[in-house]
Each structure stands twice: as C-alpha cells, then as structure tokens.
Amino acid sequence: MRFFPQRRTYDVCIVGSGAGGGMAAKVLTEAGANVVLLEAGIHWDVAKDSNMFKWPYESPRRGMGTPERNFGEFHAGLGGWSLEGEPYTTAPGNSFDWYRNRQLGGRTNHWGRISLRYGPDDFKPRSKNGMGDDWPIGYDDIAPYYDRLDRMVGIFGSEEGLRNAPDGIFQPPPRPRCYELLVKEACDRLGVTCIPARLSILTRPLNGRPACHYCGQCGRGCGVNANFSSTGVLLPPALDTGRLLVVTNAMARAVTTDRSGLATGVSYIDKNDGTDKHVRARVVVLAASACETARLLLNSESSLFPDGLANSSGMVGRYLTDSTGTDVAGFIPRLMDNVPHNEDGVGGGHIYMPWWLDNRDLDFPRGYHIEVWGGRGMPGYGFMGGIHRYPNGGGYGQQLKDDYRRYYGAVVGFSGRGEMIPNVDSYCEIDPDTVDQWGIPVLRFHFKWTDREHLQVKHMQETFRELITAMGGTPFGSMPTAENGYGILPGGRIIHEIGVTRMGDSPRTSVVNRYCQTHDVKNLFVADGGPFVSQADKNPTWTLMALAMRTSEYIAEERNKGNL
C-alpha cells in the first residue's frame, strides 16, 4: 500500500479501517474526497503478513492462542478480549466480554465471512410481534446496496426463495464435505432447512482476485486475496486514488467541535511516541466498532455537549446487543475409519441452516441460524485433547496411533447464532474511575440476557442434540439446565456487538437518522454496527457494509450540494 503526505484540512476523517471504515474510504475517495483514516492498530498487509501457508506444527504452541492473538498464534486477529493497557470494566453483577482488534482492516482480516442479508422482518421486528423497535428504513431501501456489495466483494450461495433469508447475487457454492452430507440427511429427516452456506469467499475469479484454492485457513488472512477483507478489497482501490492518507497506531481520544457545534476533526494519541495530535476535517465518520464509537462520543464532552457528543437523546451507549450463542458436539460412528482424504474446503462450513420455524408456535419470540463444524482438517493444538471422549480411545504406542486414525474426523458440532431483543439493562457508559494507559476514560458495561434469550438457547441445545442423534451419534455432555442459562455464551463472546448509536427518525429517541448522520451534529456520521436497531439472527457484517456504502454516498451527494 502507498501512503501520502498529510494535508492541512481533509474533506473527511474516518476513524476505523474495518468493514465500515474501509467501505467509507473506498466510496468517498472514489467520489473525489480527500480522506484521512485513523487506525488504532498496526499496519497489516494481508499478502505479506498472513500465515495461511504455515502448518500448525511450525508453531511452538501448536497454534495455541497468545495474549496478542486470542484465536491462535497464526491467526490474523491481532487483539482479544483483554488488551494490555486498555482495560474496560463491568458493573457489579454483570458480565460482558468485549473483543477489540488492533490492526489495519480490523476484524475483517479474520472473521468467519458469513455474509447474510437482513430480511424484511428483520427491519420491522416490532411490527411483527410488538417487541423491540422498527428501523426507519426497510429491506427495499437497502437491497440495491446489498446487490452492489455482492458484485463488488463476491459471495457464494444458492437461490432458495426464502422470504426472510433473501437471496443474493451468488457465485457457485463449494460442494458439501462428507460429514456435511450426513448433516443434510439428518436435517431432511427432522424437517430442518439446510442449504449451502453464504460466505464472502470467491469460487470464481472476480475483479482481478483469484478463486479460493480451499486451504481452509481463512482465519489467518488470505494471502492470495480470495476472501474478503478491508485490507484486500476496500483499502487498495482507495489508496490508488491518491486521495487517502492512512495513519496507523492512532488512538482516537475525542471528536472536536467548533462554537457552532459542528465537528472540526479528531484528536488522537500517536501510540508510537505517546504524543497528542489532531487532524482537521470538514466531515467526520466514526467506524471504530460500535462500542469504541460510543466511547469516543461519550468522551467528546464540551460546554455545548455536556453529556457527550451527539447524545442529546441520552441514547449513546444504550440498547447494546450481541448474538446469542451455544455449541454442541457429538461423536458420529458412521464417520469412523474414514478413507483419508483432503476435505479442507473454505475456512468455514459449506452448509448452514437459516431459521426455519414460526415463533408463534414456540415459547421464545425470535429465531437463530445454525453453523456446522467438523471434518478432517489438519489437527491443531486442541484436537488430541478430545480423544478421551471417544470410546476405547487413548492408550500408548501403536494403540494410540491406531485410535487416532480410527476416530479422526468422527466429531461433528453445531453452533447457534440467534437474535437478542434489545433491553434497557444492556448498555455501556464511561467508567468515572478508570482510564487506559493514555489517560482516556474507559467503558463500563451492563449486560443482561432475558428469559427470551435463555429459552431460545434451550431450543438450540435440544435441536443440536436431536440432529446428532439423527446422525446415529452421541452428543458430548449432558443437556444444560436453567440454572446455567441452558449453556448460553456470555455477552460479547460472539463478537457481534451492535446498537449503541441506534438509528431513528426522532432525535429524542435515537442518535443517528436513516442515513447514519447524527441528529445533533450534521457533519458527523457513524458507519459501524452502532446504528443497528435490531440484532436479527444473521451475522451483521453484510448489512453493516451495505449501510456504510449508503451513508458514504449520501455524504458525497450532500457535499456536492453544498450541505456539508
């Protein structure tokens, strides 16, 4: 990537370089704007810095995670739930795990690439059953941006005609693996909808990028650029315009404003030497991730904005949500003694199960989708630790080796990802007593799963166990109970946190309008997951990028009209 000299005042300053920030940088520079992008992490070049071609045995830890890489030593996620010098707190009696990434491109370097459109019901949840709130926009408003995103980035899948799981413009999906065929067979027997996965990974060349060669290492960052990341797809064309300056190791402290209340730029800490710096801009776009953006707004206090910037409604930080989640794995005897073969495929499942039931017949109001995992990929550090779960597994010498060969690939697992309904008890605020290593006040989290989420996860557990049994297998572990929340994962663990700068038509009850423009400051925009009004049972990244495209084009249009 090329970097360009700093200009005195930029047309736009973007904070964050991930899905939203990268999209904003691409759209705005191609529209003619001079843009400066601040990234709190280090420079990352997916082609040069990826470890996708290394074997687990090349790691002294067999790929085990480190404090800097929670998901594995070769993983492309530079960050974690705990960062040295960057604490956060939780209110007494609460639990929330906040994942933060510190590299150019953010989480797009290592995410699962599950790229699902929100459906018509997802934008109007309150109209459907009276819970939560409707978005001020609908599916028809965002569908054209989904289409353009599909063509720009590339996504595989299949046309299924499912009303609330809308089809996209798909490349052909990869064939199911052996264990996935057994899953599909069990789903058909139980009446569970099972279709090809929808991932932003190329199965055909697109826009100068090659098709995936199925090494299965997407989480390490794709060195050949066959899967989507901001660093591989969005930032290079933005830099090629000559109108983008990228500043890494820039920890944003506050958005600055003038006497009229307009944003004038962003103050930040240069992490290389600890100095305070400031960049001036005519428009500011916050895409730091939902909670980081909320923190930045709440820390941007002034006499005009005593409760934080763009917070006259008091809604900044409110209605925090994450996807619900739980997992079940099981031993499948039919997969024992399998013929050795390579079934790595893409870095993720080749099939998935969208929500297939009517909640009116259930004891919880919103749905979930199912992700599948298993197979015969190269064993990492965690594989051998589970051998004791297999019947007659273990021993020493030749018996141990023979058991490994017999049982290898005979485990299949299911993970649920469901919709959480926003509640008033889940939010983030500034901790009055704690600062990070640069003296910036940190966030304090309040979080609560309700009975609605617990009952949803109970249904996940029951369904996964039924599927394993239908495959002729045995689930690991006993069914969780109500006392332990039916096995629900802690808030934040799915890393889908959204909703803390929510969108709405009324400045009294929302932070941004339908174009993600803050009600209080007309030249300040949000382009991450913060504006989401509902969680939905889909991964949020595809909708986040479609919204960021729409917002960025609105900024360009308003600047051309002289309104910004």
Describe this protein's structure.
The structure is a single chain. The chain is α/β, with parallel strands linked by helices. The chain contains eleven helices and 18 strands. The protein folds into two domains: 8-55 and 72-113 and 228-321 and 429-448 and 497-529 and 542-564, FAD/NAD(P)-binding domain, CATH 3.50.50; 155-226 and 324-418 and 450-487. The chain has helices at 19-30, 46-49, 120-123, 125-129, 139-153, 178-190, 230-240, 290-298, 397-407, 451-470, 541-560; strands at residues 9-15, 35-38, 79-80, 89-90, 100-101, 195-196, 244-247, 250-257, 263-270, 275-286, 324-331, 351-353, 368-374, 411-418, 427-435, 441-446, 474-475, 524-526. Strands 1, 2, 7, 8, 9, 10 and 18 form a seven-stranded mixed β-sheet that branches. Strands 6-12-13-14-11-17 form a six-stranded antiparallel β-sheet, with helices on one face. Strand 15 (427-435) and strand 16 form a beta hairpin. It is globular, with a radius of gyration of 23 Å. It starts with 8 loop residues before the first strand and ends with a helix.
In short:
By secondary structure, this protein is of the alpha/beta class. It is built from 11 helices and 18 strands.
Give the beta-strand count. Answer: 18
What is the number of independent domains? 2
Helix share bin: 10-25%
| Major sheet attributes | 7 strands, mixed
The gross shape turns out to be: globular
Strand content: 15-25%
Name the CATH superfamily classification of the largest domain: FAD/NAD(P)-binding domain
Mean pLDDT: 93
Order of helices and strands: EHEHEEEHHHHEHEEEEHEEEHEEEHEEH
Separate helix tally = 11
Based on CA atoms alone, the radius of gyration comes out at: 23 Å
The stretches of 5 or more residues where confidence is low (pLDDT under 50) are 1-5, 380-388
Structural class: alpha/beta
By CATH reckoning, the class of the largest domain would read Alpha Beta
Q: Which architecture name of the largest domain does CATH use?
A: 3-Layer(bba) Sandwich
What is the fold named in CATH at topology level of the largest domain? FAD/NAD(P)-binding domain
Q: First CA to last CA: what distance? A: 30 Å
